Amino acid sequence: MRWTPASHRGDPFYKSWHAAELLLWVAAIAAFFIYPNYLPLATLVVIVALFALSLDLAMGYAGIVSLGHAAYFGLGAYVAAWLGKYGWTEPITGVLVAMVASGLLGLITARVVARGTELSCLLVTLGLGLLLFEAANKANDITGGIDGLYGVVIAPVLGLFEFDFAGKTGYWYSLCWLMFGLLVVRKIIGSPLGLTLRGIGLNKKRTAALGVDNSRALTIAYTISTALAGVAGALLTQTTQYVAIDVLAFHRSADVLTMLIIGGAGYLYGGILGAAAFIILQDLLSGMNPIYWQFWLGWALVIIVLFLPEGAFGSFQQLVRRRRPKLNKEQDRA
């Protein structure tokens, strides 16, 4: 399915570093000191934010809506688990291997996704996710099935920082990988490839008439997107030293799609802020009402879709851009 990317509408963060961007990272660093008892939850927010960023590259910029992005997230999680369980305990190289594995799977499926129709894209991504979930469920000896995979051992980061139950090492480790993913996506969308993707999102027939290989550009973007999803999955395994079969479940794909809707697809920090809002809101509502929390979360999503069609971050950017001409006119009159 082709999503009309919002990136061409003037996201201030994709071209260069912005002052407001610094505040977001200061807040992320401050959270470590202000909420030391919530670091496992904060780590989950960072990991899921990277997962949302990976989908944003595919959907918000390449215009490909995926209903099975959890397939790449789950593959990365299992690859990191197998490495840690069977002797390869070094975390950084473990993440890199998981990234390559998910990227290769993405490359295999990317041509079909890039060349297919809207319906075929949805079916291929959804079918791949369901297929891997059922395969993992059947292969109990390899994946642990519904019981999950135990015995994952992860060595200290750089041989110095050991993963602990408090989540201190896991938080900083995941935050560094989120920065890595952000730099990769920023580099892509500010490059000629990014311009090509925005052109395809606006009118793919015109870009094809200009001689652009639409399929190749979409394939590259989708492959990188799946590789970053694999990084997020590997981080989840390494920080918890356990992997459950639900990393491949459909709700993972649905949740990350919801996060982009909340934050705003096609904006560099839209998925990141959407992930933070979704996880925190989920934690608060489930704590207040463990049975009916999804009801209130559903209401929140309906309100966002009705009143913030570009997502929270995207709608804020739209408001700022509309306000600027008015301020300029007032200054000219003064």
Automatic annotation (TrEMBL):
<protein>
    <submittedName>
        <fullName>Branched-chain amino acid ABC transporter permease</fullName>
    </submittedName>
</protein>
<feature type="transmembrane region" description="Helical">
    <location>
        <begin position="293"/>
        <end position="316"/>
    </location>
</feature>
<dbReference type="InterPro" id="IPR043428">
    <property type="entry name" value="LivM-like"/>
</dbReference>
<keyword id="KW-1003">Cell membrane</keyword>
<dbReference type="InterPro" id="IPR001851">
    <property type="entry name" value="ABC_transp_permease"/>
</dbReference>
<dbReference type="Pfam" id="PF02653">
    <property type="entry name" value="BPD_transp_2"/>
</dbReference>
<feature type="transmembrane region" description="Helical">
    <location>
        <begin position="119"/>
        <end position="136"/>
    </location>
</feature>
<feature type="transmembrane region" description="Helical">
    <location>
        <begin position="256"/>
        <end position="281"/>
    </location>
</feature>
<feature type="transmembrane region" description="Helical">
    <location>
        <begin position="94"/>
        <end position="114"/>
    </location>
</feature>
<dbReference type="GO" id="GO:0005886">
    <property type="term" value="C:plasma membrane"/>
</dbReference>
<feature type="transmembrane region" description="Helical">
    <location>
        <begin position="170"/>
        <end position="189"/>
    </location>
</feature>
<keyword id="KW-1133">Transmembrane helix</keyword>
<keyword id="KW-0812">Transmembrane</keyword>
<dbReference type="GO" id="GO:0015658">
    <property type="term" value="F:branched-chain amino acid transmembrane transporter activity"/>
</dbReference>
<feature type="transmembrane region" description="Helical">
    <location>
        <begin position="220"/>
        <end position="244"/>
    </location>
</feature>
<feature type="transmembrane region" description="Helical">
    <location>
        <begin position="12"/>
        <end position="35"/>
    </location>
</feature>
<keyword id="KW-0472">Membrane</keyword>
<feature type="transmembrane region" description="Helical">
    <location>
        <begin position="70"/>
        <end position="88"/>
    </location>
</feature>
<feature type="transmembrane region" description="Helical">
    <location>
        <begin position="142"/>
        <end position="163"/>
    </location>
</feature>
